[in-house]
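name: query_chain
kind: protein
chains: 1
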Amino acid sequence: MLAQTDYEKPLLWVQDRMAILESGRIYPPGLWPRGESPELIHVEARDAKLALWAMEEGLRCSGLSGVIGELWGDPAALDFTATRRLAVAAERSGVPCWLVRLAGTANLSGARMRWRIASSPSIVNPLDPRAPGSSAWDAELFRARGHQPGRWSIACEADTFHLVATAGGGALAENERRRA
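structure:
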């Protein structure tokens, strides 16, 4: 996700109050490899309605490398109209937008791609099999325009992410390989 950001421009990260209370504030040094971090603008919004407003305003600014929003649960303000407004604003400005829904349920959305991300058991530590290894996640693309749904395993080793398609889940990876 952050690999798509232009490090010459600042990144806007918006969190609503409940997202901060339940999952914590972001830790900028942990987001990028050493020496490659863009300027970060962090907004703490009182509620989901204000967070969505801040995201939409940020998407109108082509001087940003991207907009990330974190919302907790299923707030009433997050309806189809709100997600559609974000998608249209992102398309008009060319600024990428990611909406992270923590503890939310899948419902109607105007998003172009919808993912479900969950943690997976860590990779075995090569020095001690009983010690925690590198991080791993299970990623499922369950709805997207122009892409087949699929499921992948993502592993992080030495600041590099590896994407491995699971059985029947390689459609997006094949599509992406053709573009490169």
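note: The chain has two domains: 1-111, 113-180.
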